[in-house]
Amino acid sequence: MAAAAAALLLLLAAAGPGRAVPGRARRDALREELLLSPLPNGDVAAAFQFRTRWDADLPRGAVSHYRLFPKALGRLVAALGVQELHLALTQGFWRTRTWGQPPLQAPAGAELWVWFQPTVTDVDKAWKELSNILSGIFCASLNFIDSTNTVTPTASFKPLGLANGTDHHLLRYAVLPREVVCTENLTPWKKLLPCGSKAGLAVLLKAERLFHSSYHSQAVHIRPICRDASCLAVSWELRQTLTVVFDTFSSGQGKKDWSLFKMFSRTLTDACPLASQSKVYVDISPKNKEKELLEVTPAPASVYEAIVQGEKRTYAVYDLLSPSLFNTSRSLNVQLKWKRPQDSCYIHYQPAQDRRRPHLLEMLIQLPANSVTKITIQFERALLKWTEYTPDPNHGFYVSSSVLSALVPSVIAMKAVDVEQSPLFTSLFPSSDGSSYFVRLYTEPLLVNLPTPDFSMPYNVICLTCTVVAVCYGSFYNLLTRTFHVEEPSRGGLAKRLANIIRKFRGVPPL
């Protein structure tokens, strides 16, 4: 018996905590995926998805060991009777007209909607406690969710998993539109990943690159799903998604060409050791009417075709678990180039630096006849230092005129004019050759209204502070510098004695 027990212990020790014992199937699995999609306007969208599936019964609280599924979220689901949970933290707004349909839609700010189990008696209490716990986990202001910003929809927000979608009193929905997403929210989100940000696709999640973008949305979705086709048992699915849109103009990288290193300042070196699937998909479908094709390097090992949002899409697939992927190089840096460059516009953009240099945008455009060209620029209003405001700040701030330089074709052929013969005409109406003449136009200066503080408040504060300081300082200075002398009563001088002598002769009592 002792030898058999020793052999069993050796077998378990050889299996280890991270390896599966032969003959025993794993109850959890992790899949990590990245979708890179060039957008119609030249920007690039990157959508990460980390999917953890666990064959466990979380609501009954019969789970004591957690391997891939985050323990914080698992115990939260079991303790508060959560049936389905969806949390999204978004900075920016997805511009559908410019970027097309989003892969995952989310409103600006913080969005939370939860389906509770029928066993929960007090849904409002569980909802309040859940929002407070999630506020601590993700370092967000979800604790401000209360009855004033919570609703119970009846038509929208149906359950996405195995849940009863008719009992709507188990549903709660709230949005905090002013929630600001920053690094404090991204760090705990990455810590929920089985490999963290040390291996796999998560190494690309560099905070200074993700938040230097036009759109950023990170989400957590928990729902119950069928374990197999018969759906006799239930598994729990956790999806951590992150969508970001990079503006290639602001980074000075041009409109079309890009790579993983240009976007994330990092490349992929390996997959997460705990992942059963790790793939990168690149959308190489034609993006315009001319069927302009994309070229990706290195060449993908396989191509995947699918119908997405009513359109046929083609994706280049890179499998990080494939041994042949990292044979030629130690890292994967996917690069995308357009086979035919755009010749209708070569754009030069120099971003501004606060209090150092202004923006510079130059575009070389060939305009067709009888056409209207409209150029729009997005900007954000910011507060200046109080010393940078003009004496009349409510009037606004001027933006310098735009410059339009053009070679206008001439209807009538012009002859070259000697400068000496007609200096006035050659200086006022210059021409490059007989077929066109040069024109430089200036637009009207733009007046922009910026947020202006109440300048009367500093004046009032200064007056009040000076008054308080003067009174307090005067009182303390008076007490510290004043000297006190005690005078003893004198017995009287010569005048008093003379007066008493006179009063004595007159028969009057002395003083």
TrEMBL record:
Identify the stretch annotated as signal peptide in this record.
Answer: 1-20
The GO biological-process annotations, alphabetized, read as: attachment of GPI anchor to protein
List the source organism.
Otus sunia (Oriental scops-owl)
Keywords tagged on the record:
Signal
> What name does this protein carry?
Phosphatidylinositol glycan anchor biosynthesis class T
One of the Pfam families matching this protein, by short name:
Gpi16
The protein's matches in PANTHER family, at most eight in alphabetical order, are given as: GPI TRANSAMIDASE COMPONENT PIG-T, GPI TRANSAMIDASE COMPONENT PIG-T-RELATED
Entries under InterPro entries matching the protein: PIG-T
**One Gene Ontology CC term in the entry:** GPI-anchor transamidase complex
Q: Does the keyword Cell wall biogenesis/degradation apply?
A: no
